[in-house]
Each structure stands twice: as structure tokens, then as C-alpha cells.
Amino acid sequence: MRTKRIQNNQIMCESEKKGFSKIIRTMPWLYSPILQELKDREGETLCDVACGDGYLLELINEKYPNLKLNGVDIDKDFIKNAKKNLSFNFKKMDAFKMKDQFDIITLNLALHHFDNPRKLIKHLLSTAKKALIISDQLRPETETELHQRLEKRKKFVGNNETDYYDENEKESILEAYSESEIKRIFKDFNCKMKFIDNDYYKRFVCVIDKEDLNKRFGLN
Ligand SMILES: C[S@@+](CC[C@H](N)C(=O)[O-])C[C@H]1O[C@@H](n2cnc3c(N)ncnc32)[C@H](O)[C@@H]1O
User: What are 25-50's pLDDT values in tens digits?
Assistant: First the structure.
């Protein structure tokens, strides 16, 4: 049977936020697709949209200390924690309200929180001077694949599991877009798209090169 996306895009509750901050630090591979796409970039400004508690920015700073880092998230607790623990520039803000321009915009593990992802991509492209880089998990297309992947996940996470994810991982992964939905969402954006399937969930990373788009369509 085919899976259907659960459209439950509310802001995370307190226990989910704590569980999320703990468990993602044991899974840096969820951040590597974007990290890899940033190579050869120096001295540029970067804003991580829907940055959560800033973990991706922490990893970017370790690998590329010459980038000027910023983060925005709609959640006040995540932003409060990020400001407390990290020295980058953080703002509590809805992604759709962003007006400041940055050379690079990143969006990790967050596209599935938006019910109108094409509108979001267009908006983020209007704030990115050079590139927009998006990565997220993919929802398995069938129930059988979902169960196989949940079993595989248990082996990966082992004792690092938090109570919240132990109970809610299935619902959480069903919130994601599937590979075929992602292909439709990014259609016509002229992007470089990669699918990654090294661990328990398939993911994608997509780079939209704004300079290339501008050249192609004679903009600016
Ligand atoms: C699963 S978390 C990912 C956090 C972070 N990007 C990471 O990779 O660790 C999704 C994030 O999207 C944020 N978010 C959801 N809707 C948003 C919106 N409209 N504008 C900005 N952030 C939003 C949530 O507050 C949450 O921090």
C-alpha cells in the first residue's frame, strides 16, 4: 500500500524540541548533504532558514570558518537556546517574512513543515543572491518500505533513542514529502538534485544556483 503524507505541520511541542536537540547531535550525517555542497565557498554570507537550535550552523562553522553565519527560526525557544550557545546572528522570524539578502540560503530537515513548498522556494530564492540549498528526508513511498526503514533505524540509533522519537518516529517520517512529490515540487527550478540512501532514510539535496538562473534567463 502507498503511504500518504501526514499534514501535521504545527510547531514542535516542548518535549519534541528537547528530544530533537538531543538526538540530532548523534546523527551528523543528516547534515552532511548540505555541508558537502558548501565546499569552495569563502567569505560569503549564509542564512540557515528554520535553523532550529543552530546545529547545522555549528557544523558549517567547524568546516568553513570563513563564512558569515546567520540563522532564523519561527520558534522562540530554539532561537533563545541558539543565542545562548552560539555566537552567530540569530533572529526569531517566519521564513515567509524574511527580507534580508544573503549570498547563500540553506534549509535543512524543514521543507516538510511547509504546506506550500513551491511558494517557500520562490520566496527563499528572492532572498538568496547566489544559491539556495535544500535538504530533507523523504517519506517512503510504500508501507513495506516504511517498516523496513523503521527497523533499520532502530539498529542505527540503538541506545541513543529518546522517548519522544521512540513513540513518534513513524508519524514524524510520514510528514515528509516522497521522492516523486519532491521531483514535482522542484520541477522547473533548474536545480541540481541528488538522492542519498546511505543509512536508514533516503534523503535529497537540491542546489539552485541563482547566478546560473540569472544568466540563463537574462535577469539582473
Ligand atoms: C525538524 S526542525 C529542523 C531544524 C534545523 N534546520 C536542523 O536541521 O537541525 C524544523 C524547524 O523548522 C522550523 N519552522 C517551521 N515552520 C517555520 C516557519 N514558517 N518559519 C521558520 N521556521 C519554521 C521549526 O521551528 C523547526 O525548528
Answer: 888 889 999 999 999 888 999 999 99
**pLDDT tens-place string over residues 176-201:** 999 999 999 999 998 999 999 988 88
Distance (Å) from CA 216 to ligand 1 centroid: 32
Task: Specify the amino acid at residue 181.
Answer: E
Ligand 1 mutation pick, 75, 124, 162, 173, max ligand atoms within 8 A of CB: 75
Assigned domain for 7 exists: no
79: CATH: 3.40.50.150
- Could you tell me the pTM of the whole model? 0.93
Q: Is residue 11 part of a domain?
A: no
Q: What share of the chain is helix, strand, coil (3-state, %, to 5)?
A: 45, 20, 30
CA 52 to ligand 1: nearest atom: 27
Structural domain of 47: 23-217
Classify residue 2: in a domain, yes or no. no
Q: Which grid cell is 177? A: 514529502
Kindly state the average pLDDT of the residues 97-119.
Answer: 96
Distance from C-alpha of 171 to C-alpha of 195, rounded to nearest angstrom: 22
Q: Does the C-beta of 13 come closer than 6 Å to ligand 1?
A: no
**Cell numbers for 40:** 569552495
Mean local confidence (pLDDT), 108-123: 96
Instruction: Find the 148 Cα to ligand 1 centroid distance in Å.
Output: 27
**198: CA distance to ligand 1 center in Å?**
24
User: What is the count of structural domains for the chain?
Assistant: 1
6 occurs within a structural domain? no
